[in-house]
Design goal:
Helix 1 packs across helix 3. The protein is an all-alpha fold and 103 residues long. It has one domain. Helix content is 71%, strand content 0%.
Length: 103
């Protein structure tokens, strides 16, 4: 990783971005459903990895602690929530990744 990407302001911004996504993850009934869907998808996506890396947080360790899979499975099984093909793919592939890592 670039040295300038690991500066304190960068870490602070990364933590803030992840923190906002966590708020949108946990507060499903208090945010617009699109924000909740975006947060769940972003947290489990490859796009989110650079932010976790910048915050010095291992995404694959953080998601189970956030109970990300509970929210992902709920979205996939909710017939009233529209998921794009890309969102559905991110959720499915990330869930499969974590399932394959279980002992």
């Amino acid at each position: 990783m670039d040295d300038d990407f690991e500066t304190a302001p960068t870490v602070a911004v990364a933590v803030a971005v992840i923190g906002q996504a966590m708020k949108d993850l946990y507060r499903k009934n208090l945010v617009h459903i699109n924000d909740h869907v975006s947060a769940v998808c972003w947290l489990g996506s490859k796009a989110g990895i650079k932010w976790f890396d910048a915050a010095n947080i291992a995404q694959d360790s953080a998601l189970p602690k956030l109970q990300w899979d509970v929210y992902a499975k709920a979205l996939l099984s909710d017939d009233e929530v529209f998921l794009s093909d890309g969102e559905r793919r991110v959720l499915t592939e990330t869930l499969e990744y974590f399932e394959s890592r279980r002992p």
